[in-house]
Amino acid sequence: MPSEQALDKYLEGSQSLGDGIFFYGSSTPVPTTDKSPTLVILATWFAAQPRHISRYVKTYQSIFPGTDILILQTSIPDMVYRPYSVQQTKLYPAVPIVVKHSQQPDHEILLHMFSNSGAHTACQLAHAHRSKTGTGMKVGAMILDSTPGMNTFQIITDGFIAGMPSTPVVREILSLLIYGLVGAITAKEAITRDEHFIQRLRKDLNNEQCFQSERGRVYIYSKADTITPWENVERHAENARDITAGKVRLELWEESPHVSHMSRDSERYWEIVRQIWSDEPALKAKL
């Protein structure tokens, strides 16, 4: 996971709220008539580099200058062995910020999650919120970038390896460790019949006890993504229609790799974000 010092370098003015939690509080007030989220939650992908995270932060600051930004990171312990209860406790410092922006009139939250790891952390935040408030996490809209996938052995290992350093020798050594670790976890789940984290997050994302979305959601995904196959995304989107009153939008890229859609076509990517908060009925079902 990127260090606090590294994130501070790229996110000037951010405040560390705990392990993997960073907050940028805007000094610009949001007019109540302005169609902007008052809080953006970025649940980043596994091992996301600070310079990559900062690209999303800076663009959000440009599009919605009066919006607060909450950054959530995911670590290896979160993904492989740390109990859900511990993960949720770790996210407690973020809950008051969510409550502030979800319970006040004219306040809305945009939840933007990346990959299965980011979706997993977003779901743990929703559970932490429910344990503190007794209600699901109310958000204006959800953006699901390269998620959710399925829990096959190869897809999971590829997802971890994608976040590893690019140095060939280091990458090869870490890849062997990841294969062994994922293999051990898979064997443990088979013996104990524990539910895999991807199976659980797929359910949580479509569970109103976890998330209550007013404007609906948009899935951003690609046929070239080998970690989150496009068919898995569309199956999940079909199931989501029942809890979003049809407010589901599918944005399919053809050639962009995993969590690289913004880099491949930034104009299209950010227009999708803008449309969520415009007067246009941007989230009509496209299934």
Commentary on this structure:
The protein is globular. It has 2 domains: 4-151 and 198-276, Rossmann fold (3-Layer(aba) Sandwich); 152-195. The strands form 2 sheets. An 8-stranded mixed beta sheet has the order 1-2-4-3-5-7-9-10, with helices on both faces. A two-stranded parallel ribbon has the order 6-8. Helix 7 packs antiparallel against helix 8 (168-192). With 287 residues, it is of the alpha/beta class. Mean pLDDT is 84; it is low at 281-287. The chain starts with a helix and ends in an 11-residue tail after the last helix. The protein is built from 12 helices and 10 strands. Pfam families: DUF829. Keywords: Membrane, Nucleus, Transmembrane, Transmembrane helix.
Number of helices: 12
Poorly predicted runs: 281-287
Overall helicity:
40-55%
Measured distance between first and last alpha carbons: 36 Å
* SSE class: alpha/beta
CATH superfamily of the largest domain: Alpha/Beta hydrolase fold, catalytic domain
CATH C-level label of the largest domain: Alpha Beta
β-strand number = 10
| Radius of gyration, taken over Cα atoms and rounded to an integer in Å | 18 Å
